[in-house]
Amino acid sequence: MIKTFKDKGLAELWSSGKTTKIDARMQERILVRLDRLDVVTTLKELGTIGFNFHALKGFEPTRYSIHVNGPWCLTFGFDGEDVLQIAFEQYH
User: Cα separation of 9 and 61, whole Å?
Assistant: First the structure.
């Protein structure tokens, strides 16, 4: 279940279904991924084709990434069954 957002634009998109802080062309793809993050109970459930789910190196605690579009990804932490500190970023 999604607990926290690192990015205010994502929080607004999640709560209202739209935001001016994120390119409108990516919002639907992001919402699909946020919907999935909200219902997963294990990281194994994120192995969906097109998500390119993987752990990021060099973070303690571990952060994870799922692909959105081009270099844009959602990055987040995972604690038990909770998704924490979700950010929308280019991390490459």
Answer: 24
